[in-house]
Amino acid sequence: MKRLLALILAFLPAWFSSPLSGGERARANEIRFVECKVDLHKDGSAVVAYVVQWKVGSRPMHGFYFSTKDLSPVRMRRGNSFALHSSGKRYKLQIKRLGGNRWDILLAKGAGVSGGTLTYTFAFEADFASRGYLARTRSKDGRELVVFNWSPQKWDEARRQDHYTLEILTPHVLPKGVDPRAYVQEGDLVWTERFVNEVFKIDYQRGPKDRLRLVFHRDRPGNRFDMRVQIYLPAAWFTLAARGGGRASATGDPRSGRRGGIRRRGGGPARGIPSTYLFFGGAAILLLGAFLILGGKQRSVLQARKGLDEIRWDHLDWTPPKLMLSNFRKKGKICKDLTPLEVAFYLGLPFRRIVAGMLQTFVDEGFLELVSRSPLKARVRVFPDREALDPYHRHLFESFEDDGEMDQAELEGLMNLAIENIRKKAWDCDVEATKAYWSQQIEDKAKAERPRDRRASDWDWYYWYHSQYPFMRHPYRYEKDPFQDEAQIPIEVDHIVQAPVDTDLALNIDVCHDACHSACHSACHSACHSACHSACHSACVSGGSH
Fold it and tell me: Which residues lie across from 218 on neighbouring strands?
């Protein structure tokens, strides 16, 4: 404690005398979106995955700090961790424990990136039951339930965050053919505190292996937003052992819509230092007060996890969750700004076929020459005007330019670049309406040239695609198969969705589904700011890019 106070006081002069200038603030990193996915098992254990997208400033970003204090001990799943830059380049992550329950999420091998966006994906195992966030309870009418009462991490540097989404994949398997929303509503299966309805958009979906997925979504949450949800599920979905009488507490006053703090055993919420004292005490007292408040909060949370009070059912006023949209898509909304290659992904063309078509275009235009088809190798003949290439063609060309081949990582980079851009453009669009629109665009262009004896096919997309770019000077006339090298593209389809851990979460991005159909993700900090941030906020807030 003394050491910490000394550190804070030592950095005070630098902190107050060296504020960030306007230019430095403009170059700072900031969070674009956060998505947290919880694969909840029957016994209360879970795999938790975070997808965090940062808008990167002008100085190289290496990583950020992350706290698992509320769920510790945890076991990081480093094999499921990676970062994707908006250029399409994929990075492995180095996840370092800094001490206690604080982690440094870093690009591996000291890599740093300036500009664009960096989307980090990482996962860890945790036990919600042992930490008191999932526990058995009973309603006043005798109904056996399980309460889930937890908040994902609060995030610093998130003032302009676009959205925060929490997905809970429950262990309950939906019957075949039922609509998830109707099933939940008719069965009265999911109960929430009133504040949950007031704060979040809520949806029920059919998740992997037909498991019921609950989605809680908040647009523009703001800095250090508390994403806490408190819901009640049928006890039959779980196999939790009784702890301390097998009861967990619900906190706050649902009727008022306020969240309330987790209460200490036999006491009220932790109190902060009066603002008058903080004001007149000066900067040192301010920081000390912040530290004490956070310390009190940590202690109260730890006490709450050791044994939560009995639910006061007579004070609860439950309301069924209010459904807000389906997958956040707007019926009839069409995404009209997709590029021809993004259209191919959206329409579900096989990834090998898309790459084979791109390769055939480079060969036909004289930029590449095929050296070998098995294994597939090519060499550069003429360098195209790189400014005329879109990011996908540039990525493909540079892959062959490097060593004459495309490997798995380069193909994944191309695929994930397309997925990331589609997510940004089409996350709330009507999938079927958008498909119909682009299918008609392709048909209108291709029907005049397509041979009468040929049915509509993926060749039509290639004909349309080949007419959309100025660097494609040789028209395609259906004279040959543009996908003849499809089988030689060295992509392992099973490698697209990586989930080797005991979880049904897709910890990578699935081209055909997650990208298009699901809802949609610093060096600028001075040393003194970082030190004070670490001292005062490490327990409760993640972020602190560097």
Answer: 164
Q: Strand locations in 368-509, DSSP E?
A: 368-373, 376-380
Residue owning tokens 């699901």 = 518
**Per the confidence metrics, is the pTM higher than 0.85?**
no
* Beta bridge partner(s), residue 93: 107
CA distance 128 to 145: 16
Q: Where are the alpha helices (H) located in 365-430, listed in sequence order?
A: 391-403, 408-426
Q: Centre a 10 Å sphere on the Cβ of residue 432 and count the other Cβ atoms it contains.
A: 11
Identify the H or E element spanning 199. Answer: helix 194-199
204 contacts 213 by C-beta, under 8 angstroms? yes
Q: Exposed, middle or buried by CB within 10 Å (0-12, 13-18, 19+), for 181?
A: middle
pLDDT at position 439 is 92
**Measured distance between the N- and C-terminal CA atoms of the chain, rounded to whole angstroms:** 26
| Ordered alpha helix ranges (H), 18-133 | 22-26
Residues with Cβ < 8 Å from 471, sequence gap 6 or more? 365, 384, 385, 388, 389, 393
Residues 432-441 have pLDDT tens digits of: 899 999 999 9
Predicted confidence (pLDDT) per residue in 527-542, tens digit: 333 333 333 333 446 6
